[in-house]
Amino acid sequence: MKLNDILKGIETVSVSGDMNVEISDIQYDSRKVEEGTMFICIKGFVSDGHKYIKSAYEKGARVFLVQDEVDDIEGCTFVQVADTRKTMAEVAANFCEHPSEKFEVIGVTGTNGKTSITTFLNEILRSDNKKVGLIGTIKIFDGDNEVVSNSTTPESVDLQKIFKKMIENRCDCCAMEVSSHSLELNRVDSTDFKIGIFTNLTPDHLDFHKTLENYRNAKEKLFHKTSEANIINIDDCGGEVIYSHIKNLDTKCYTYGIEKEADFRATDIHSDASGVSYTLNGPGFEEKIFVPVPGMFTVYNTLAVIAACEVLGIERRVYVEGLKNTGGVSGRFETVPNDKGISVIVDYAHTPDALENVLNTAREFTKGNLISVFGCGGDRDSEKRPLMGEIGQRLSDRCIITNDNPRTENPEKIIDDIKAGLDIERHNYEIIYDRKEAIEKAIKNACEGDTVLIAGKGHENYQIIGTVKHHFDDKETAREVIDSL
Ligand SMILES: CC(=O)N[C@H]1[C@@H](OP(=O)(O)OP(=O)(O)OC[C@H]2O[C@@H](n3ccc(=O)[nH]c3=O)[C@H](O)[C@@H]2O)O[C@H](CO)[C@@H](O)[C@@H]1O[C@H](C)C(=O)N[C@@H](C)C(=O)N[C@H](CCC(=O)O)C(=O)O
Ligand SMILES: Nc1ncnc2c1ncn2[C@@H]1O[C@H](COP(=O)(O)OP(=O)(O)OP(=O)(O)O)[C@@H](O)[C@H]1O
Ligand SMILES: N[C@H](CCC[C@H](N)C(=O)O)C(=O)O
Ligand SMILES: [Mg+2]
C-alpha cells in the first residue's frame, strides 16, 4: 500500500521525503523490520523506539513514523505526529483496510471473567456453525491457526493484522478480551466493536492505573466504541457507574445480574460441585439454565454470554444446550482427577476478588479441610498482595504461600508483601518459595474429603523467573504428585 493511503485521515505535525512510496509492512519493533517496512517509533515505559531508527534503517526501513524531531536520513521519509502510539492504531487499521468493520467483534472487559466469557461464547457460536476468531489470554485463533498468546490484548498493529487474517479466513465474528492496558494504551483504537461486555471492577493493575477510578475510566472507553449493544453487570459497583454514563448513548444497553433488577437476571440459583443451575429471566422470556462449572461467578459470566447471544440472534436452544455441554475453561476452576477422594482444583484467581470467590465456591462442597496454594506475580500491582494474603488465610483452613511468576522482583519481597496481610498469630499458613514443593506438600498432606486449591497460574505452562520463562504447569505438577501417592 502507498504511504499516502496509509496516512489517509491522519493528522501530521510535519512530513519530509517521498509520500508516494510503497509500504510492504508496518512494525513498531525494529527487530521485526524487513525491507519496505514502515517503522513506528513508540516512546515506551522501558525504552524509546526513536533509539532504534538506525537499526531499522539497516534492516531496510526507509519510512519512519516519529513523535520526536529527528535527524533526516537521505532517501528516507519521516512523518511526524503528536502521539505515535495513538496514530499507530489508525495507521494499522488503514494498512489492514479496516478489517474489524467487516465482521462482528465482541469485546469483553472487566477485572475477572474475560477469558471465561470469550471461551463460552466461542463454544456456543461454533456450535451454531459460525466461524469464530478468538483473542485473549490463553490463545489467539484466526480461523485457521492457533497460537499461544503473550498478552491478553495484542498491540494495535498485531491486532489489526489478526483481524485481517480472520477476514481472509472467513470468520463471521471474533470474541475478544479487551484489557484495561489495551484501552489506555490505544491498542484497540480504530477497532469497530459491535458488542461490549463489562464483567466487574475490583482492585488490580493499580501499579499502572494508580487509582480505581482511572482503572474504571479505562474500561469504560470500550463502551463508547461499540456500535450495536453494551452489556453491563449491574450488580457490580463499577458496572453501575459505567451504566449511568452510557445508558443514554445511541448504542443499546442491556444489564445483567442477580441482586438487582436487570434485563437478564438469574433467580432460583443452585450451586454445587457439579455446576450451577438457575432460572434465566430475559426480556419477555424465562429459561432453565445449567452450566457444569461451579461458582456464582459462572452465573454472572453465563448471563453476559446469554445477553450477547440474544443480541447476535442466536436461537435460545443453541445457547441453552451449549452452556449445558460446555467443557469449561482451561485452568479456571479445573479439577485434576484422582482416586484419593481429594478435590484438587487449579484456578487462575490472581486478584483478591477472584481468590475470595473461588475459595468460597470450594468451601461450599468441601467436607474436610480447604487447603490453598497461591502467590502473587512480580512486576505487577503490589497493593493486591496483602489483600490476597488476608483472604487466602481467612478463607482456607491451611494455606501455603508460594511463588507465582516473580519476574524481575525479589520473591522474598513479594511474599513479605503478602505476609503483611496475614494474622501471624494464626499458625495455619506456611511459606514455601518453590511452587512445586508447595503443591507437593499441599496434596501429600491432604486427606479424603479435603480440597486443595492451587490458584494464580491456571492455564499457564511456564513460570517467569527474572526474564526467563521456565516450563511449569500447575495441573501437570499436581498430576505428578497424585501419581506418586
Ligand atoms: C505496560 C505495557 O503494557 N507495556 C507494553 C508496551 O511496552 P513499552 O511501551 O514500555 O515498550 P518499551 O519496551 O519501552 O519499548 C518502546 C518501543 O521500542 C521498541 N523497541 C524496543 C527494543 C528494540 O530493540 N527495538 C525496538 O524497536 C518496542 O517495540 C516499543 O515499540 O508496549 C509493548 C509493545 O506492545 C508491550 O509488549 C508492553 O507490554 C508489557 C510487556 C506488559 O507486560 N504488559 C502487560 C502489563 C499488559 O499489557 N497486560 C495486559 C493484561 C492485563 C490483564 O488482563 O490482566 C494485556 O493486555 O496483556
Ligand atoms: N465473573 C467473575 N467474577 C469474579 N471472579 C471471576 C469471574 N469469572 C472468573 N473469575 C475468577 O477469576 C479468575 C480469572 O478468570 P478469567 O481468566 O476468566 O478472567 P480474565 O478477566 O480473563 O483475567 P485476565 O485479566 O488475567 O485476563 C478465574 O480463575 C476465577 O477464579
Ligand atoms: N493478565 C494478568 C495475569 C496475571 C497472572 C499471574 N500468574 C501473574 O503472573 O501475576 C496480568 O498480567 O496481570
Ligand atoms: Mg483473560
TrEMBL record:
<dbReference type="GO" id="GO:0008360">
    <property type="term" value="P:regulation of cell shape"/>
</dbReference>
<feature type="binding site">
    <location>
        <begin position="110"/>
        <end position="116"/>
    </location>
    <ligand>
        <name>ATP</name>
    </ligand>
</feature>
<feature type="binding site">
    <location>
        <position position="380"/>
    </location>
    <ligand>
        <name>meso-2,6-diaminopimelate</name>
    </ligand>
</feature>
<keyword id="KW-0547">Nucleotide-binding</keyword>
<keyword id="KW-0460">Magnesium</keyword>
<feature type="binding site">
    <location>
        <position position="30"/>
    </location>
    <ligand>
        <name>UDP-N-acetyl-alpha-D-muramoyl-L-alanyl-D-glutamate</name>
    </ligand>
</feature>
<keyword id="KW-0573">Peptidoglycan synthesis</keyword>
<dbReference type="InterPro" id="IPR005761">
    <property type="entry name" value="UDP-N-AcMur-Glu-dNH2Pim_ligase"/>
</dbReference>
<dbReference type="InterPro" id="IPR013221">
    <property type="entry name" value="Mur_ligase_cen"/>
</dbReference>
<feature type="binding site">
    <location>
        <position position="460"/>
    </location>
    <ligand>
        <name>meso-2,6-diaminopimelate</name>
    </ligand>
</feature>
<protein>
    <recommendedName>
        <fullName>UDP-N-acetylmuramoyl-L-alanyl-D-glutamate--2,6-diaminopimelate ligase</fullName>
        <ecNumber>6.3.2.13</ecNumber>
    </recommendedName>
</protein>
<feature type="binding site">
    <location>
        <begin position="152"/>
        <end position="153"/>
    </location>
    <ligand>
        <name>UDP-N-acetyl-alpha-D-muramoyl-L-alanyl-D-glutamate</name>
    </ligand>
</feature>
<feature type="modified residue" description="N6-carboxylysine">
    <location>
        <position position="219"/>
    </location>
</feature>
<feature type="binding site">
    <location>
        <begin position="404"/>
        <end position="407"/>
    </location>
    <ligand>
        <name>meso-2,6-diaminopimelate</name>
    </ligand>
</feature>
<keyword id="KW-0133">Cell shape</keyword>
<keyword id="KW-0961">Cell wall biogenesis/degradation</keyword>
<dbReference type="GO" id="GO:0000287">
    <property type="term" value="F:magnesium ion binding"/>
</dbReference>
<keyword id="KW-0131">Cell cycle</keyword>
<keyword id="KW-0132">Cell division</keyword>
<dbReference type="InterPro" id="IPR035911">
    <property type="entry name" value="MurE/MurF_N"/>
</dbReference>
<comment type="similarity">
    <text>Belongs to the MurCDEF family. MurE subfamily.</text>
</comment>
<dbReference type="GO" id="GO:0009252">
    <property type="term" value="P:peptidoglycan biosynthetic process"/>
</dbReference>
<keyword id="KW-0963">Cytoplasm</keyword>
<dbReference type="InterPro" id="IPR036565">
    <property type="entry name" value="Mur-like_cat_sf"/>
</dbReference>
<keyword id="KW-0067">ATP-binding</keyword>
<keyword id="KW-0436">Ligase</keyword>
<dbReference type="GO" id="GO:0005737">
    <property type="term" value="C:cytoplasm"/>
</dbReference>
<feature type="binding site">
    <location>
        <position position="179"/>
    </location>
    <ligand>
        <name>UDP-N-acetyl-alpha-D-muramoyl-L-alanyl-D-glutamate</name>
    </ligand>
</feature>
<feature type="domain" description="Mur ligase N-terminal catalytic">
    <location>
        <begin position="23"/>
        <end position="94"/>
    </location>
</feature>
<dbReference type="Pfam" id="PF08245">
    <property type="entry name" value="Mur_ligase_M"/>
</dbReference>
<dbReference type="GO" id="GO:0008765">
    <property type="term" value="F:UDP-N-acetylmuramoylalanyl-D-glutamate-2,6-diaminopimelate ligase activity"/>
</dbReference>
<dbReference type="GO" id="GO:0005524">
    <property type="term" value="F:ATP binding"/>
</dbReference>
<dbReference type="Pfam" id="PF02875">
    <property type="entry name" value="Mur_ligase_C"/>
</dbReference>
<dbReference type="InterPro" id="IPR004101">
    <property type="entry name" value="Mur_ligase_C"/>
</dbReference>
<comment type="pathway">
    <text>Cell wall biogenesis; peptidoglycan biosynthesis.</text>
</comment>
<feature type="domain" description="Mur ligase central">
    <location>
        <begin position="108"/>
        <end position="309"/>
    </location>
</feature>
<feature type="binding site">
    <location>
        <position position="456"/>
    </location>
    <ligand>
        <name>meso-2,6-diaminopimelate</name>
    </ligand>
</feature>
<dbReference type="Pfam" id="PF01225">
    <property type="entry name" value="Mur_ligase"/>
</dbReference>
<feature type="domain" description="Mur ligase C-terminal">
    <location>
        <begin position="331"/>
        <end position="458"/>
    </location>
</feature>
<dbReference type="GO" id="GO:0071555">
    <property type="term" value="P:cell wall organization"/>
</dbReference>
<feature type="short sequence motif" description="Meso-diaminopimelate recognition motif">
    <location>
        <begin position="404"/>
        <end position="407"/>
    </location>
</feature>
<feature type="binding site">
    <location>
        <position position="187"/>
    </location>
    <ligand>
        <name>UDP-N-acetyl-alpha-D-muramoyl-L-alanyl-D-glutamate</name>
    </ligand>
</feature>
